[in-house]
Amino acid sequence: MALPLQITVEDLAAGRVDRLLGDYDPEAREIVTLVSVDHPVSTETLHRAAVRAMSTDRILIGVARRMLPMSSDVDILLEEFATTFAVNGGGNDSVVFTDEVDARAIGLAEAVARNPHSSTIFLDTLRATASLDVPDALQVESLAYSALLGGGEFREWLAGREAPSSPPMVADPVLARRKGDTLHITLNRPQRRNAYGAQLRNELVRALTIAEADESIELVIVDGAGTSFCAGGDLAEFGLAANHSEAHLIRTRGGAGRLVDALRDRIRFEIHGPCVGAGVEIPALAGRLVADPHTTFLLPEVSMGLIPGAGGTVSLPRRIGRWRSFALCVTAQHIDAEQALSWGLVDEVRPREAAIEL
Length: 358
Fold this sequence. Notes:
- It comes from Leucobacter denitrificans.
- InterPro entries: ClpP/crotonase-like_dom_sf, Enoyl-CoA_hydra/iso.
- Pfam families: ECH_1 (PF00378).
- The chain folds into two domains: 6-114; 133-354, CATH 3.90.226.10.
- The strands form three sheets. It has a six-stranded mixed sheet, with helices on one face.
- It starts with 5 loop residues before the first strand and ends in a 9-residue tail after the last strand.
- The chain is 40% helix and 16% strand.
- A hairpin with a 2-residue loop joins strand 6 (174-179) and strand 7 (182-187).
- It is an alpha/beta fold.
- It is built from 15 helices and 14 strands.
């Protein structure tokens, strides 16, 4: 794929993006526009461009192949973009710093073109939930997820995969043991890499409910048995919900996210191995998240025609910003523990063996 349409900040300020591309088409796949932001422009132009960026239906991606100008006025504009790729470093969480600006921009545009509906709804959800408290934001996320469950992109993904066998029920999918004022919870389906299926979810919620109700429990530690803390939702259960409204109620009333948020000041997740989907989204809601040095992170849902649905549209932007969340999830990029630490996705990296044993 060639570079998408590219404009300057002056073009954006003058309203040329919509004149060049015409009316919004929900069936269009090339909906990304790159905005070059690596040359100085006036404060007035930056502010007019920000207003235009707020009103366009296009997905705007900032690109800075040279030094990104650093100022509060530039930040105002970058905040209105979906994300920005730039070569120079800094602490701005609206920017993904990379030596491969064009490659990353093309990769993101291609990913959006493959799943324009889920990409757009993901961006809308990130923006809509930014000012909400966590419980309300989880409601919005789940409603958007339900809409996409009935969409063509997810149906296409379902049709293109070989359906896995249904997981057998097991005796103890979650272990909980208490020592003093600490409750230690372990996801215990190592043969399924602790996939976040209905049985494991229900048992985890049960353990977290006990912890929330018992104020004598001062610390909750959650980890996982086997080679992975949690490999995400159980693929054998994907797409099986016949009633999307009921599935919404299960996600919001019966999911772990709201409980982890309620416990955030006294819960710590200790994760390891390949962490996928819910295995990233739920721990990121905790007040303390520790990763083994060999931990990897992947959010593949947008590439499946969905959005993160276990709390990720809420937990990720609160840790790494909605701009990096957009780039990470839409491209289904793998990142390692050190990258996660530098972004603030995790609070500490330490060997799993060094974790406190009860």
